[in-house]
Automatic annotation (TrEMBL):
Keyword Transport attributed: no
Signal peptide: none
Domain of life: Bacteria
Residue stretches making up the HPP transmembrane region domain: 17-172
Annotated keywords: Membrane, Transmembrane, Transmembrane helix
Spans through the membrane: 20-42, 48-65, 77-110, 141-162
UniProt-recorded name of the protein: HPP family protein
Amino acid sequence: MKTYLGKMRGERLQRETPDLVDALWSWLGAVVGMGAICWLSAHWLSQHLLIVASFGATSVLLYAAPESPFAQPRNVLLGSLLSAVAGVACFQLLGATPLAVTLAVSLSILLMQLTHSVHPPGAAAALVAVIGGPEITGLGWWYPLMPIGIGCAIMLVVAVLVNNLARHRRYPLHW
């Protein structure tokens, strides 16, 4: 029992001095990635939604933690798409109910783990598919393609271009 409780204490974290250059590369990636999605949504797809909340978390992974396994292209695309499909299916079957929310998130986690494509913002995409309101739920089975698929693809292209401009970064680590 002591070992079990001892694991909950954690370890003391050694804080490093923030790297301003790395932070600025992360900022640049987020500005270009989210800026591209916002511009396309406003100018090209003026009647269609291209922005969802999970893209904020995807931006953190792609631009601030590009070495993370969760930020690799397979995880971003497949994890997000599978999660969005799970969310739409749960909404279609159960509506915007607590059970649909529970199943959408838990099924998205199961699918991502089984396909080795865990991307934490994917679970948010599943959640949004259920509770996103009429603008999202009205997209039905288009939701996994647009906004999720197209938005993730745009952010991935930007991540490849911007992260590789920095000498100390390499993205992706694997496809």
